[in-house]
Design goal:
The structure is a homohexamer.
Chain A lengths: L22 E5 L7 E7 L2 E10 L13 E8 L11 H4 L4 H15 L4 H4 L3 E10 L4 H22 L12 E9 L2 E4 L3 H4 L4 E8 L4 E8 L6 H27 L1
Parallel strand pairs in A: 4-5
Antiparallel strand pairs in A: 1-2, 2-3, 3-5, 6-7, 6-8, 8-9
Helix pairs in contact in A: 2-4, 4-6
Catalytic activity (chains A, B, C, D, E, F): tRNA(n+1) + phosphate = tRNA(n) + a ribonucleoside 5'-diphosphate
Protein name (chains A, B, C, D, E, F): Ribonuclease PH
Family (chains A, B, C, D, E, F): Belongs to the RNase PH family.
């Protein structure tokens, strides 16, 4: 463990460097969507719904393949100070578009779109309360909502073979006051040198890796420590997903 | 009671004509906002947050008065079939604008804006799950969030005298299969002849009254029966608000 | 009459409480539209055109039904001070959308859309000069333009049976300095306690009723007085429509 | 005259090649604007209002100069078939922007902006009915509205010296079936080879000249014939403006 | 020559009144487009690409005709001070729309759209560096790109007969310090009395003529001098186009 | 070298796995901007200009710090098939926003914003021709334009100490047909399993690292091979930047 033997680390939450926040995954949070999950990473709460539509975007029409896409939003007062409502401003900001593109790519990485058939599953990830790590919570929760939507399709015999292979989850890691830590909350995120979001599957493969040096540039050994932390964290998250899906 | 002696009425929910759905008002639902209320009218669930800002819109600057305003949104899959996200479409629809204007007017009706001082309180009403009556639930919940935000201001000694006078709540009424009924759920709303949204204060005065004949035009006696039902329903809702605020 | 025995009332225009402004309805005001009416309620002047299109919106395609819809606009200098042009600002404001939705609902209430067949009639209501009551004048004038467009369709044998049943008109009522008055002009509108827009048909049924307490909340007896005034006013307006259509 | 000796010319309206349509200029058409003119060139009717504002755009602030600008719009059914409302589409089209820029430039050509002082006069030109030549009618009418707005400023002693020098008017000319003609109506405009809009002042100087070959390119002698026709037509229009302003 | 015998003229660039700037036309400037030309008029550099698409706009579908259209843009720092990026502002300005409409009309004037068949050629004219006359350079360069795209179609045997007849080029002329001059650069353009853009074909016919008096109105004899200068300049430009196309 | 001993690799371009494309950096490409660089990575050509403005965004006003930001665009036909112009569509797409946010972050990582003072440097990166790797070319070129803009400020004595520390460059790496390769061109990019963009400084530190599994997820050893390739490639690019800046 990269942080092994670092006695002096003191995270604002009192967690150890390799400790996730409390993770909760509630299925069936709302009743209309084919999949509806409230995921919490500590105080970060994201409602993820999966909606099935028997259409595909124009670029896929007639190809016998499905599509999985995502949209992301933050309620105006999910944050410490109120943000303008994107619907009122008339456009989604760059951060929003970047995150929803990431969520969509992450989930498509575990779907056989031929097996899904000509239908679209849209994952709406709406942040009810933000405390850092909203995108990683969104991916982790949206995976569960996606599985529920696929089960719904299977229950109705609309598809026979399961188009989902493996599992996908995400977590952030970063270097906080010199120490690599797992699952940054807002207090850490706004005061860290390097911030990295990692998406992995249950085979230990990387799907996305986005690291940014906020302060000084990070070195190869730091990258190694961070990916190591992420691997362990994602394994825990995937266990939580399994547990939730088994209920 | 207008519906007295109507034995044959059968509401989809099994309620009597003058019966509200189960109403729940949870304060402190999220932690960042100065007021944060999850209000439920049966399966309709709206998150209402109140945000305090020490600025006023341009038209009020320097006048020593505050402002109370509202924004409304539905999560894309709060409804039976998914609606496009307004932020993605790039504009708020007419229905959204109409509802948020209504919520704002309703709440300004119980605020002395001179006593509020030069600050704005924004009520964000976001529908997590819709089953009819989202605007009336929003008004009823936003009132509680507004009171909490004002208490927060008082606790910090930013204002001394309470700018809120009385209470405001709202309910829908309608003529369903010939019988006036209170608090329409979606099944009734989509199959009724007349639909009316009523906003009243705790003195029994009308603040807003918006009636629409969906099928045949309504008569004077029907209007009387509907406003009678609304009066009784709103008295109950105001009692629920008091109870929640006393906790 | 609600205002009976109120000797002290003094309206800015010198009208009695139950008196409409001078109403004029000129058909054929412009030459391209299938129906084109300039309606005046005193100094309020609205040009209402009805345009027939042999298409329906997507949600009605193939259902054998027609559609009636409305758009509303104010010329930038129809008002006392110039308003920004909505086309230049890049969006229609909430008030505009609210009014055009109201006009559309009001007129659909007197049309059998099956008999209209798969075509759309669009009512464009453009305010040339505003002095209060633009939406009620628009509804009253648009009804006449709609009838003219239907007559045009009948003359060309495109439809055989008249899809319009009854007549629809609208008027505002309000409580001005304590007295219920009919058909508020701008001077009254900007200084009244309660303002209500009422849409009725020629059978005395209510189609829309939208009342707003601007100052103190209104009581049940005030509501009764206001709807009484509106009933009488609308009867007069429907007589004016008939007269215009008989020319 | 260019068209002299062309016996066979037959304009759809029966006019001679050098004949304007009937021109009417009604001042005081609406009551709120500082200048308000309904101008008609035959069936083309444009409402031109002049609005005075005691502010200038940012690029002129503090320079002691005024600004004159224009906006242009067509009512959706001013034309033979209904056009989408630009406010509803969310933007002004290229043709609209081009025309309003032209109107603004044309009128600034007769205004001493130093004498106007730090205020803006906005000319709104809204087409109530279109039959070709809306931009030239708009310029011709807007000039009269502008003079009225300046007279209003002078009457209130806000400016002492008249900032307007000379007069400005506009007309279209074109080659219709081989013959140069003045003031094209819609039937001619949609079937002509060359179309030219000419703006001139009362000293016979050109302010704008915009010629477009719709069919074959035009030759130097045709250009001469067209500008000759325009000169004569504009002299007539300026006489009409004077007459209207003398009433 | 209009400027003959004007000894005192001193253009900032040292050119004689009837002298073009150095004109360069580089074909094949980028490799993806069917036609790609970098045109320079002195320091003004515009990249013109021609893109072939086997579709036509909706209004032409099924008519057996093609379409030629243009888009224009300036890189944000093609100018002396940085302009906002139109994509970031969310709309193209009026000047941009006006110019791209002009380029499209100019090029359609030399294309037989029946012979082109149901395909669209889009000319993108992007200004890399601006020093006056960007629209005239764009037209002159876009013509060459258009020819290359047509040759590409012919080489692939998609069309048999050449749909382009003649050549089209454009130049600006203006009255600078009292003297008519050809091909204004930015220093002249921002300090001249009259500015005129002229588009002509190789038969000496006018396709577009847009003259604007910036300072005093221009007289008939000035118009003659300017069109004379333009004729000579465009003949030179067309020779340059031929030369480039012969390489 | 990660690819050592992989005899069978055959890149479409014939390059070895660890070989960059030909890189060219031309300073002073256009003349108005304070820095103007045309950077080529093979057939990818990006024009990067740096514009200095003596203002900062609102959130920095009065803090004595400067700002460095970037905008990115592709000319419509810089690509194999024409893309819609973002200015015409009315918004920048998610990919564009994501890239320009990345460029801005990358360059801010080598600027001491206190030393820059209250001014903004905007890097406009416009793709003239695309063949893969436009964002990495843009970062590499924009760094040089930024240095030129800072030198310009120093030459004018507007700043005394150099606010730029170190150098920043970027390159893409990916796994193409099983082999890690450096600097993907379009043919490789559209057919690779993993694509990673890496931004580093001249001290060998990572500034950004964005890896995406397009096909199968990538393993830890592949990540190591890719970052190793990137380190070597960026060292070469930084040498090229130095060389260009020394000219």
């Amino acid at each position: 463990m990269a942080a092994a033997g670092t006695p002096a680390i003191s995270r604002p939450s009192g967690r150890t460097p390799e400790q996730l926040r409390e993770v909760r995954i509630e299925r069936g949070y709302t009743r209309h969507a084919e999949g509806s999950v409230l995921v919490s990473f500590g105080d970060t709460r994201v409602l993820c719904t999966a909606s099935v539509d028997n259409k595909v975007p124009a670029f896929l029409r007639g190809k016998g393949e499905g599509w999985v896409t995502a949209e992301y939003g933050m309620l105006p007062r999910s944050t410490n100070t109120r943000n303008d409502r994107e619907a009122a401003r008339g456009k989604q900001g760059g951060r929003t578009l970047e995150i929803q593109r990431l969520i969509g790519r992450a989930l498509r990485a575990c779907v056989d779109r031929k097996l899904l058939g000509e239908r679209t599953i849209t994952l709406d990830c709406d942040v009810l309360q933000a405390d850092g790590g909203t995108r990683t919570a969104a991916i982790t929760g949206a995976y569960v909502a996606l599985v529920d939507a696929v089960r719904w399709l299977q229950a109705r015999k609309e598809i026979s073979r399961d188009p989902i292979f493996g599992a996908v989850a995400a977590v952030s890691v970063g270097i906080y006051r010199g120490v690599p830590v797992l699952d940054l909350d807002y207090a850490e995120d706004s005061d860290c040198d390097t911030d990295m979001n990692v998406v992995m599957n249950d085979g230990g493969g990387f799907i996305e890796l986005q690291g940014t040096a906020e302060g000084h540039a990070f070195r190869r050994d730091e990258l190694d420590a961070l990916t190591g932390l992420a691997e362990a964290g994602i394994a825990e998250l995937i266990a939580k997903q399994r547990e939730a899906l088994a209920r």
